């Protein structure tokens, strides 16, 4: 959206330079608005129509607010579904069990998905199998963080510490069945999906085969987020054309109108209502599958920081995952799709998990560089891999020390990887004070005054400064709310105090660290 705003500003400036006069003030969309980009678009469009009507009433003979309601005005769907007869399809490859079958079905479905990003992203880098599902928090404490271990069951992918693993989550079979039933779809139908106008082509520009059918249910399971993501406003507009109950049609038309935008936000976005829930609330609507394929949000991969070193765990990759759950304003329980699915997997079931590896924003440091790591909560995940890697590097020579600042609520409830950190802080380990490193924990709720990682950093001001003087790199990982800015503020204070310089000079020195590649932040909302 920022890139589109840049284009709009540049175009507006160029047209003004050529002597044009703006009819209305330039409008800029904001996809982060609670109501999506329509939150800025609707009032801008209204002002444009009103201004054009003032300039020349003939533009709108019935007035600028007149709305034409006609089902013929709806656009045609952008995708076509071709149904294939079972006896004319080679089912041998479609019914073979095992990993090969899962790989083929995943690649085939994702290549036909309207939400595909690229051909590379269609085919998973590999498939994983979970071998460990370990809770890290005390039962009943109100938090659920899991340590997951996976092993490669297809090709082994080389990755580095600081990299990111993307996982394609599975969907609740009961929700998928309810969606198919609600939409009156035959789960056993064999289909191919392709953009309108591509019917005569066997492959698209990226080599995806449109002519190899897949079961409709499999396509839904692997490509359409029917029970997690909320639909956009256009979904409600299209629904209104297929509603046969008049009261449902009126309500959907209202939701799709500028006047109903705020009520739609309360009903849909604020409650995180899912596609399945919306369809169940309007039972008279029977949308063609072509429209559902186009408008149901695509099933997206979820990204997690890798919490293992490949040197310490060959043929494995580990994750540290917060199992997300929350309550909506109307007291509806919601859970994160991927984290909840992973937490519910039993390693004994041997489920094949599609996965992709990506470079993260925390580059792996050379063994000779001291490190100052700040990772409260699950922000510690990549640093577990950093510490493992450095312990391995120690075996072939003396690697530089690590100073780690970790934070959690309570020592007894959510002290993630307690034994791991403490073991590496002893016996001249990478985190040991004897080596010049250190491990410091902020328990925010174990005393009346809340204590966070930035407070522990200030307590160790001189030791942090000593490592920076020795050429240390700083890595910060965790929530993007206040933590990154609070940590930066603490570092500014430390530099100002220990170097005896002004706060402004300390700010410039931190910027220099960023420019030199010695200050890295990985934050998420």
How would you explain this protein's 3D organization?
The relative contact order is 0.10. The chain contains 19 helices and 16 strands. The mean pLDDT is 89. Helices cover 36% and strands 17% of the residues. It is of the alpha/beta class and 525 residues long.
Described by strand count, sense and barrel closure, the largest sheet is: 6 strands, antiparallel
Strand content: 15-25%
Which topology of one domain does CATH recognise? Rossmann fold
* Overall geometry: globular
Radius of gyration: 27 Å
Helix content: 25-40%
Number of separate strands:
16
State the end-to-end distance. 18 Å
Structural class: alpha/beta
Q: Name the strands of the widest sheet in spatial order.
A: 7-4-11-2-3-8
Q: What is the CATH class designation of one domain?
A: Alpha Beta
Would you identify the CATH H-level superfamily of one domain? Nucleotide-binding domain of ferredoxin-NADP reductase (FNR) module
Poorly predicted ranges: none
**Mean model confidence by pLDDT:** 89
Q: Do you know the CATH architecture of one domain?
A: 3-Layer(aba) Sandwich
Number of helices: 19
GO molecular function: oxidoreductase activity
Pfam families: FAD_binding_1 (PF00667), NAD_binding_1 (PF00175)
Organism: Populus trichocarpa
Protein name: FAD-binding FR-type domain-containing protein
Question: How do you describe this structure in short?
Answer:
The protein is α/β, with parallel strands linked by helices. Helices cover 36% and strands 17% of the residues. Among the domains are: 6-59; 233-286, Up-down Bundle (NADPH-cytochrome p450 Reductase, Chain A, domain 3), CATH 1.20.990; 371-523, Rossmann fold (3-Layer(aba) Sandwich), CATH 3.40.50.80.
């Amino acid at each position: 959206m920022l890139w589109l705003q840049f284009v709009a500003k540049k175009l507006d400036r160029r047209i003004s330079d050529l002597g044009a006069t703006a009819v209305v003030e330039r409008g800029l969309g904001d996809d982060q608005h609670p109501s999506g980009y329509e939150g800025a678009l609707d009032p801008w469009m209204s002002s444009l129509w009103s201004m054009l009507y003032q300039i020349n009433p003939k533009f709108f003979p019935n007035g600028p607010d007149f709305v034409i309601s006609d089902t013929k005005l709806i656009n045609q769907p952008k995708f076509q579904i071709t149904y294939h007869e079972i006896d004319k399809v080679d089912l041998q490859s479609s019914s073979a069990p095992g990993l090969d079958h899962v790989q083929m079905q995943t690649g085939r479905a994702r290549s036909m998905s309207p939400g595909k990003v690229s051909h590379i992203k269609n085919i998973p880098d590999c498939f994983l199998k979970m071998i460990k599902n370990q809770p890290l928090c005390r039962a009943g404490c109100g938090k659920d963080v899991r340590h997951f271990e996976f092993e490669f069951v297809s090709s082994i992918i080389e990755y580095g510490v600081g990299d990111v693993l993307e996982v394609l989550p599975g969907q609740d079979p009961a929700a998928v069945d309810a969606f198919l039933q609600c939409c009156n779809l035959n789960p056993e139908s064999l289909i191919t999906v392709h953009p309108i106008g591509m019917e005569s082509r066997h492959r698209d520009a990226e080599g995806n085969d449109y002519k190899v059918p897949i079961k409709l249910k499999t396509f839904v399971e692997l490509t359409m987020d029917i029970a997690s993501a909320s639909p956009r406003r256009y979904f409600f507009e299209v629904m209104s054309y297929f509603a046969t109950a008049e009261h449902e049609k009126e309500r959907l038309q209202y939701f799709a109108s500028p006047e109903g935008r705020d009520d739609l936000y309360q009903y849909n976005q604020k409650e995180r209502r899912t596609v399945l829930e919306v369809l169940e609330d309007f039972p008279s609507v029977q949308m063609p599958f072509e429209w559902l394929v186009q408008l149901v949000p695509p099933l997206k991969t979820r990204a997690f920081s890798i919490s293992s070193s490949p040197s310490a765990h060959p043929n494995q990759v580990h994750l540290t995952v917060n199992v997300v759950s929350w309550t909506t304003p109307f007291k509806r329980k919601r859970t994160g799709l991927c984290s909840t699915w992973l937490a519910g997997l039993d390693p004994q079931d041997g489920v094949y998990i599609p996965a992709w590896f990506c470079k993260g924003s925390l580059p792996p440091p050379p063994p000779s560089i001291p490190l100052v790591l700040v990772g409260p909560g699950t922000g510690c995940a990549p640093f577990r891999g950093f510490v493992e890697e450095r312990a391995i590097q120690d075996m072939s020579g003396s690697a530089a020390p690590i100073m780690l600042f970790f934070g959690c609520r309570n020592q007894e409830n959510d002290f993630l990887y307690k034994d791991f950190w403490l073991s590496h802080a002893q016996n001249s380990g990478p985190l040991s004070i004897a080596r010049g490193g250190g491990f410091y924990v902020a328990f925010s709720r174990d005393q009346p005054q809340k204590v966070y990682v930035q407070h522990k950093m200030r307590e160790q001001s001189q030791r942090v400064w000593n490592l920076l003087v020795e050429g240390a790199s700083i890595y910060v990982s965790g929530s993007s709310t206040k933590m990154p800015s609070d940590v930066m503020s603490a570092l500014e204070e430390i530099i100002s105090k220990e170097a005896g310089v002004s706060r402004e000079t300390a700010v410039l020195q931190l910027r220099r660290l960023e420019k030199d590649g010695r200050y890295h932040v990985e934050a998420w909302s």
